């Protein structure tokens, strides 16, 4: 599979940060049993990974702007391009020694996501996509799952927790969706969840309260794998609303419908 020069830059940055995270993940597993726990260590690992990505990307394309989880907005002289980066998506998993976390890097050109990379260093799985060029896991081309009924589907989501709002709203959504599907999963890394939908490992996904860096690469991944993505009202304001609903055409539609339904007594 031939990658463009820009995608190669993104892959190199993600893999380099991934090596750093993998080393730190090994140490987290040791700190896990210590009294203090690995909290501070994990924030350092997160910042270190972001630094690696920032350095690599700014060296390769000086002037591009950034939106990064830790650093926030970094203006660039080039107002056409912006990197959107989550250096560690799945921090809670990482902190607890659960090997489900990822690095997510997207490139936006004139407001449109044109390339995305999601890398899970613990499993050495690299997801890549370019607008119009398809989505891949390592060298394998991705296609969303073909199941077209919710009753056959496994659907991913994110569960709000302490310090996050919308608990009641989520319970209503969960009540509706769980009654119609064959299984629900909460993996703990929204970027990987979206990559898994692109890979057909999960049939669909929904979550609210997300940030652009959680979803930017995943949105492109799913579209390039033939899937559909929207906010909960079916529009395209995923960044502004923080919401995402995804799946193949039928599952996406069925999820939107189920999410809107008033809670049933079933
Ligand atoms: C979190 C993960 C998680 C999602 C949270 C995100 P973080 O990102 O993507 O799956 O449910 O809402 O904030 O904090 O681990 O980078
Ligand atoms: Ca995140
Ligand atoms: Ca993060």
Topology as a string of helices (H) and strands (E):
HHEEEHEEEEEEHEHEHEHEH
Q: What is the average of the pLDDT values? A: 94
What proportion strand? 25-35%
Biggest sheet layout = 8 strands, mixed
Shape verdict: globular
Sequence of strands across the biggest β-sheet: 2-1-3-4-5-6-7-8
Radius of gyration: 18 Å
Q: What is the percent of helical residues?
A: 25-40%
Unreliable sequence segments = none
User: Please, how many helices?
Assistant: 8
The tally of beta strands, per DSSP, is 13
Number of domains: 2
Bound molecules: D-MYO-inositol-1-phosphate, calcium ion
CATH homologous superfamily heading of the largest domain: Fructose-1,6-Bisphosphatase, subunit A, domain 1
The CATH architecture name of the largest domain reads: 2-Layer Sandwich
SSE topology sketch:
Layout: H1 5-31, H2 39-60, E1 64-68, E2 72-74, E3 78-89, H3 91-95, E4 102-109, E5 112-120, E6 125-130, E7 134-137, E8 140-141, E9 154-157, H4 167-178, E10 183-185, H5 190-198, E11 204-207, H6 212-224, E12 228-230, H7 238-241, E13 244-247, H8 249-260
One calcium ion is lined by residues 69, 86, 88-89, 91.
Question: Would you kindly provide a written description of the structure presented here, covering whatever features stand out?
Answer:
The protein is of the alpha+beta class and 266 residues long. The chain folds into two domains: 5-141, 2-Layer Sandwich (Fructose-1,6-Bisphosphatase, Chain A, domain 1), CATH 3.30.540.10; 150-260, D-Maltodextrin-Binding Protein, domain 2. Helix content is 39%, strand content 25%. It has eight helices and 13 strands. It has helices spanning 5-31, 39-60, 91-95, 167-178, 190-198, 212-224, 238-241, 249-260, and strands at residues 64-68, 72-74, 78-89, 102-109, 112-120, 125-130, 134-137, 140-141, 154-157, 183-185, 204-207, 228-230, 244-247. The strands form two sheets. Strands 2-1-3-4-5-6-7-8 form an eight-stranded mixed β-sheet, with helices on both faces. The chain has a five-stranded mixed β-sheet with strand order 10-9-11-13-12, with helices on both faces. The radius of gyration is 18 Å and the shape is globular. The relative contact order is 0.13. The mean pLDDT is 94. Residues 69, 86, 88-89, 91 line the site of one calcium ion.
């Amino acid at each position: 599979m031939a990658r463009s020069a820009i995608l190669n830059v993104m892959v190199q940055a993600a893999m380099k940060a991934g090596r750093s995270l993998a080393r730190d993940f090994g140490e987290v597993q040791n700190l896990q049993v210590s009294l203090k726990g690995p909290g501070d260590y994990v924030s350092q690992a997160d910042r270190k990974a972001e630094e690696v990505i920032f350095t690599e990307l700014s060296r390769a394309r000086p002037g591009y702007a950034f939106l990064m989880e830790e650093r926030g907005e970094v203006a660039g002289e080039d107002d056409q391009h912006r990197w959107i980066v989550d250096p560690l998506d799945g921090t809670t998993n990482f902190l607890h020694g659960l090997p489900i976390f990822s690095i997510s890097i997207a490139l936006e050109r004139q407001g449109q996501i044109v390339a995305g990379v999601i890398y899970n260093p613990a499993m050495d799985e690299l997801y890549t996509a370019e607008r119009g060029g398809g989505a891949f896991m390592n060298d394998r081309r991705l296609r969303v799952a073909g199941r077209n009924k919710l009753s056959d589907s496994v659907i991913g989501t994110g569960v709000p927790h302490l310090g996050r709002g919308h608990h009641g709203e989520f319970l209503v959504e969960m009540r509706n969706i769980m009654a119609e599907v064959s299984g629900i999963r909460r993996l703990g890394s929204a970027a990987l969840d979206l990559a898994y939908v692109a890979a057909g490992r999960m049939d669909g996904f929904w979550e609210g309260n997300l940030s652009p860096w959680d979803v930017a690469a995943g949105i492109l991944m799913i579209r390039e794998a033939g899937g559909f993505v929207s906010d909960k009202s079916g529009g395209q304001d995923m960044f502004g609303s923080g919401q995402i609903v995804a799946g193949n055409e039928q599952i996406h539609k069925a999820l939107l419908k189920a999410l809107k339904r008033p809670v049933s007594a079933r």
